[in-house]
Amino acid sequence: MGMLVGVIAGLLLAGTRFAADDSAQRALWLMAAAGIQLRLLANMLDGMVAIASQKASRLGELYNELPDRVSDAAVIIGSGYAFSSLPMLGYIAACLAILTAYVRAVGKANGAANLFIGPMAKPHRMFVLTVAALLMALLPQNWRPVWGSFSLPSFALAIIIIGSLVTIIRRLRMIVRHLKAAL
User: Fold this and answer.
1) What ranges do the domains of the chain cover?
2) In contact, 106 and 174? CB cutoff 8 Å
3) CB atoms within 10 A of CB 63
4) From CA 135, how far away is CA 158, in angstroms rounded?
């Protein structure tokens, strides 16, 4: 369910570029923000139910990761195609988001703890995009910040890119420390 909602949220974000008028665009921004949060809620509930019912397993963990990556990519790339955004930033941010999860998974496979540290783990990325979507929905058009060719959605993606790089470095350092200590 979380993956489906994540893909829909990404499509809603991309749809803001093609909205017929300002009120339709604002509705798309609001629905996308709600979709992003519903995606996180579905993901959280899935994990809680698995743990509470004692059905958590390594296989379940595998099936949990793939939909998360699809959802991340859909929402982040959708943000790149959103109104006044830059698609290239969406693709870069999506690749880095997937890389943060990959580094965590490789670390865990090598015996390190499951590192969900940030500053740009999944909940943080989704928070940044939710805030950007809400601001785009609620701010008057002339209050929406633009810095050169950088609009609010592009700025949110830039924050994700920078934060993801920092997250990757932090996770790698912790994994390296763990591996060196295990020698």
Assistant:
1) 2-182
2) no
3) 11
4) 16
Rounded alpha-carbon distances, angstroms, from residue 131 to 5, 56, 63: 18, 32, 29
CATH topology of domain 2-182: Four Helix Bundle (Hemerythrin (Met), subunit A) (1.20.120)
Report residue 141 as tokens. 């058009």
Q: 4 in the Ramachandran plot: left (φ > 0), alpha (ψ -120 to 50) or beta?
A: alpha
User: pLDDT tens-digit profile of 9-18?
Assistant: 999 999 999 9
Segment 70-91, tens digit of pLDDT? 999 999 999 999 999 999 999 9
Residue showing tokens 């002339």: 142
Whether the CB-CB separation of 127 and 120 falls below 8 Å is answered with no
